[in-house]
Predict the structure.
Amino acid sequence: MITRIQRRQRRAMRTRYKLLQNNLANKPLLSVFISHDNIYAQVQHEGKTLVACSTLTVEGSRKKTNKSFASLIGKQIAEKALKQNIATVIFNRGYRKFNPVGKLGAFVNSARDAGLCI
């Protein structure tokens, strides 16, 4: 019997494998992880983290996983990436399903609005 955690791990590995196989231009990956309390994002290339951002440094309530915090982190990661001359990235959603009106949608839309090409 496959547990819920094993299903998530398989889905994340499948998503990452497909992204890396189709990454012909050798672009960096924008990975996002949403835990119960915080949102973490990082731009990585060939296993090295180039830019990272999370809600740990943002002042506010204890639980920082709503859409407003997701859009704030998307804007911050885009600004940091553009300072490092990273203009285009490939979005790695991990095991989460992408919903355009959800947290990941708010994250991606704010990163695009800040100038990052996803």
The CA atoms of residues 44 and 50 lie 5 Å apart. The radius of gyration is 14 Å. The beta strands are 29-34, 39-45, 48-54, 90-92.
